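Chapter summary example.
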Amino acid sequence: MNIFDVIRAPKMSEKTLSLKEEGNQFAFEVDPKANKIQIKESVEKSFKVSVLKVRTMNVRGKKKRLGRYQGRKSSWKKALVTLRAGETIEFFEGA
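The structure predicted for these 95 residues follows.
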């Protein structure tokens, strides 16, 4: 797997913004097949930062309905990446 295919999108919400301020943690949507080592290498090479810890979780898709039709959103994998003190990812700075 190419290291640039591992990270799909950054995740920004109120909770992830508070994690950024308190613990220097950043959230990403990642490829479901990626492991922690691949995620760490991908973040370090993409953003040129030092990663201390990676936590991953599988987020189940929610049930949705439109009238009488029921469906389900896709499941996805989330990674919380902790950076070394003093380092930051510039992509998140505008939020």
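To summarize the output: The first strand starts at residue 7 and ends at 10.
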